[in-house]
Specification:
alpha+beta; three-stranded antiparallel sheet; about 50% helix; about 15% strand
């Protein structure tokens, strides 16, 4: 007997008892994944219950005093003492509790039911915190079901996209304010090294700059070069900024842009998508398509209803492999579960290995980042395409996962 039957069990005392009984007998190899998922649902359930108690403490303090600010401080003090937290940590926890129970009850319900975990709940609460209550709840209604199958990175990107669609003017205003505050900071690390950070920069320029750094780094990978790609990128960045070093004259970085035709024609303000970065406001998407300057821009126009590709190309006649571009257009990111590596930085994997007779044809190629490419073959993963562009992955233990190469 396997633990498949617990997949539909609501988290709570009954599920806890079942797991305890099976654990005494010992989990099978297959059951370990099902047990991991079940325990995670239980953690989510009880975390939601703990937040509920924090919110009820706030309600209790509010009954004692009409001053909401005082009620919050009093509840924070009780939580701080009970859980041995710092003052700021207690304030953060109470803020999360009120965000779940008062502001976004659907998120709390998903957490208490074990449909999402605390990491995803935090992403939703933080990602909608700047929105008016009515719009925030509309966004939650749209993302709460997909949140169950997305990574936190994918969920964050989806929330940004839906938030922009829900209130384009507010998104444009927030973008302008953020870019006005752009800056570069240098900070030491505890290891004695240093970080150089550019903050609140225009995403289209960052994508182009990162693309060029990557191209220059790849040009340095000659025989005898033992630096990793991350090390090469870091060294190229410093060489460029210091005006020294032999970094060559690599081609400008390529940026993958996905945008609805209605956005380009100004019939809507739906965001575009920069591969690897996520949603950008409509104005940025339009600016990118209008630029015919030094950078090489790869673009994809999609139908807003069917999400099918209408057309794709580059703004300059930069030589590209036709097969690779078609595959990258179909799947903008690595198709392994949870990976968001842009397909332009991925290997093209044969669904049937080439040495087993698999054809080098568009319908038999998929983008996999180098890490996941190795994992697929060495760890025994298998995948097959599904209608609509999704992929069904099967692990060596026999568990299946559905994933998509399309951005959420």
């Amino acid at each position: 007997m396997t633990l498949d039957f617990i997949e539909g069990m609501a988290p709570g005392p009954e599920l806890t008892a079942v797991l305890a009984a099976v654990e005494r007998e010992g989990f099978t190899e297959y059951d370990r994944v099902a047990a991991l998922q079940a325990y995670t649902r239980l953690v989510s359930h009880f975390q939601a219950k703990a937040y509920e108690q924090m919110a009820l403490l706030f309600d209790l303090m509010a009954e004692w005093d009409d001053d909401a600010e005082f009620a919050g401080e009093a509840a924070e003090a009780e939580i701080r003492a009970a859980l041995r937290l710092t003052r700021s940590a207690a304030a953060n926890e109470l803020g999360m509790a009120l965000g779940l129970r008062k502001r976004l009850p659907r998120v709390w319900e998903a957490l208490v039911n074990g449909d999402i975990d605390l990491r995803r709940a935090r992403v939703i609460v933080a990602g909608t915190g700047h929105l008016p209550l009515e719009i925030a709840r509309r966004v939650v209604d749209e993302v709460i079901e997909p949140a169950q199958r997305l990574t936190t990175g994918q969920l964050h990107a989806l929330i940004r996209r839906v938030s922009v669609q829900a209130d384009p003017d507010e998104a444009a205003e927030r973008y302008a304010q953020a870019v006005d505050g752009r800056r570069v900071i240098a900070e030491p690390t505890v290891e004695g090294a240093a970080n150089l950070l550019g903050l609140d920069l225009p995403p289209d320029r960052v994508a182009a700059a990162m693309g060029r750094i990557t191209e220059l780094a790849r040009s340095l990978r000659r025989d005898g070069e033992n630096r990793t790609m991350d090390q090469l990128r870091a060294d190229v960045l410093l060489d460029l900024l210091e005006g020294q070093g032999n970094v060559g004259r690599a081609a400008k970085g390529t940026v993958d842009l996905h945008v609805d035709l209605t956005t380009l024609t100004r019939l809507s303000e739906d965001p575009g998508e920069l591969a690897g970065y996520g949603p950008v406001i409509a104005d940025i998407a339009r600016q990118v398509t209008e630029q015919q300057q030094e950078s090489s821009w790869r673009w994809t126009v999609t139908d807003p209803e069917s999400e099918q590709v209408i057309h794709n190309g580059t703004t300059r006649r930069r030589p590209t492999a036709g097969q690779r571009r078609d595959v990258e257009t179909r799947s903008p990111t690595c198709i392994f579960p949870g990976c968001r590596m842009p397909s332009s930085n991925c290997d093209l994997d044969h669904r049937i290995p080439w040495f087993e007779g698999g054809p080098t044809a568009i319908d038999h190629l998929d983008p996999l980042c180098r890490h996941d490419h190795v994992i697929r073959h060495k760890a025994g993963w298998k995948h097959e395409p599904l209608p609509g562009g999704d992929h069904l992955w099967t692990s060596r233990l026999g568990h299946t996962y559905t994933t998509s190469g399309r951005s959420p």
